[in-house]
Amino acid sequence: MTTRSLRLLALVCVAGSVLVIAQSDVPTAPVPDPLVMADGSRVKNASDWRTKRRPELLALFTREMYGVAPPRSPQMKFVVFDKGTDALGGKAIRRQITVLLKGDPNGPKFDMLLYVPKKATGRVPAILGINFWGNHAITSDPGVRITTNHVESGKNSYADLTCVKDGQATEACRGVNAAQWPIEAMMDKGYALATIYRGDIDPDTKDGFDKSLKAFYPELQGRGDNFSTIGEWAWALSRCIDYLVTDRAIDSKRVAVFGWSRLGKAALWAAANDERFSAAISDDSGAGGAKLFHRGIAENITRLNTVFPHWYDENFRKYNGKDTALPFDQHEMMALIAPRAVYVASAQDDANADPEGEFAGAKAAEPVFRLLGGKGTLPDKWPAVNQSVGDDLAYHVRTGGHDVKPFDWDQYFAFLDRHWNHR
Ligand code: GCU
Predict the structure, then answer these.
(1) Are residues 342 and 280 in contact, defined by beta-carbon separation less than 8 angstroms?
(2) Which of 147, 154, 357, 365, CA to CA, is 20 to 30 A from 188?
């Protein structure tokens, strides 16, 4: 047999059921069927999914991987400290909000930046994104509050952070990451943008616990399903939608959550948990995001739990070295979002994230989208570069490396327009 004829079909084989999920040159271990319950019984209809399988999977991922998050506090308050200032050369109205998670200015809190298109006549849909280097870094708008939390320094491929002095962002840091955030295009399209800084939630280091918002919830530590950093970012995104539903400029039925890389992992988990998000966009989320661990290639569970031990919960460590035997996988996490819309995007040279494995993850979630009436189908085979495939569950692999590029946003805009039937 030639290598080509050895091309393997990745199969879902559980309780006697076999589903073709994606064709690939990489042998993927059989992944669990999202439509088979833990007791072996099959999900027969949407009601079985909603009432039985979805809660079962949500509990499984919470316990075994992402950890628990605190409930929303009845004391939570929003302090709108920038109430609606003209910004972006007249294209937007800017608001900034401090979310006081326990209602106490000395307690856990973070800032959200919101731009609403000025030309809007009614409520507008919104993209809620979590950013890497500060709200002030995604735009040069001088009115954006500069974070006082730690920011990493030095120059990377996405932002020149030599502006950061002693861990503190300076005026010179405004807009250093603007290339990944086409805010004006969003305004032109009639979308609002809300964003928060990951470092206002968690310093994102191995020993950063004391400076994270998690430290305000000590009761959720010292247990296998402890509140984790990815869980914390996702939970903060839910607290943002708590605000957005109160803002009269926003159509809260049309809010998409977006994240790149580790923040794409968080965006998916946010949408999996919180059904108020009508869409989720995962850009290069890779391992612990959209990719299937069962592929057994690229970044694996041991690496995630060693290099980033704060990202997932303690229970997840028992799966170190067991990627291909994991009793669940990320397609089932993404299936929790169905039939709401999900866009999974990859970059061809992003080997650490296993682009083909991200596609395989989306494809393996498809039976659930189909069961629940999601539109469109993904091809059986990993598509060629630079073409968007699917509909409510959509995918592309772009040429180039780990990044967020204009090509990516063009696809997201088309996807959101389609899903929201906007214009
Ligand atoms: C590392 C990590 C990835 C992660 C990425 C990022 O490369 O291995 O899992 O997605 O950082 O967040 O930039």
Answers:
(1) yes
(2) 147
